[in-house]
Amino acid sequence: MKNGFHKITSLFLALLVLGSTMSFSVDKHYCGDHLIDVAIFGEAAPCEMMQSLDAKYGKDTYKKMGCCKNEQTVFEGQDELKMQFDQFTTDQLVFLKAFTYSYTYLFLEADKHSASVTSHPPPLIITDYQVAYNQYLI
């Protein structure tokens, strides 16, 4: 579950960075007041009237007549991705330190299986059984 959430989040953030840095253009072709064609990343296809005027009278005749027009909108992407953090105020530094401390210790798990061996000393040896029964490893 956690691994899948991390993958989805990283994919979303990668697409967000890609979308904010990518620039593209939208080209629209109007014939009179009617929108004929819209194209993204390219040039809009002209209408039949514009094609017939170009074939009959030459290129750019529609501009003189004023019946057809092309409109291009350019969406510029972000160029600088690194924000400048040169100077912090004292309040911002205190908040940053407190937030970092509380956030990192929020997800640490408490040690539930603590070993209590060091708190109890071993029992005292009353009789040494190896010496009493004369059993030695040779």
What topology emerges from the helices and strands here?
Blueprint: H1 2-21, E1 24-31, E2 34-40, H2 48-57, H3 61-65, E3 68-75, H4 90-106, H5 129-132
Antiparallel strand pairs: 1-2, 1-3
Mean pLDDT: 80
- Give the ordered list of helices and strands: HEEHHEHH
Q: In percent, how much strand structure appears in the residues?
A: 15-25%
- Basic shape: rod-shaped
Which runs of at least 5 residues are low in confidence (pLDDT < 50)? none
User: In percent, how helical is the residue content?
Assistant: 40-55%
Please give the radius of gyration in angstroms: 38 Å
Describe this structure in words.
By secondary structure, the chain is an alpha+beta fold. It has a domain at 20-82. It has five helices and three strands. Strands 2-1-3 form a three-stranded antiparallel beta sheet. The longest helix has 20 residues, at 2-21. It is rod-shaped. The mean pLDDT is 80.
Give a summary of the structure in a few sentences:
With 138 residues, the chain is α+β, with helices and mostly antiparallel strands. It has five helices and three strands; from the N terminus they run αββααβαα. The chain has a domain of 63 residues.
Which key features would you list for this structure?
17% strand; 3-stranded antiparallel beta sheet; rod-shaped; alpha+beta; 5 helices; 41% helix; 138 residues
